[in-house]
Hints:
- This protein is α+β, with helices and mostly antiparallel strands.
- 32% of the residues lie in helices and 21% in strands.
- The protein starts with a helix and ends with a helix.
Amino acid sequence: MNELELQLLKMWADCGVQEIFKYKNRIKIYRKHLPSIELFYDLSYQLFTDVEDIANYKESIPEEHKVSIESLIQSRS
């Protein structure tokens, strides 16, 4: 799973994605005041377990749980 995550992260970084967040097991691009764009829907519930799902917190916002793509790549390399 770690290898798949790393490949996805590198692909997203190559496309200019800088930060992501997770909402109901959906990985989305963090874009501040713009609508988010869904990148990936994890039906297995096994990927990106180190990214906090904002759906687990009442009144949480993406800005509080966004994660840098670069930091995620470094943690998996």
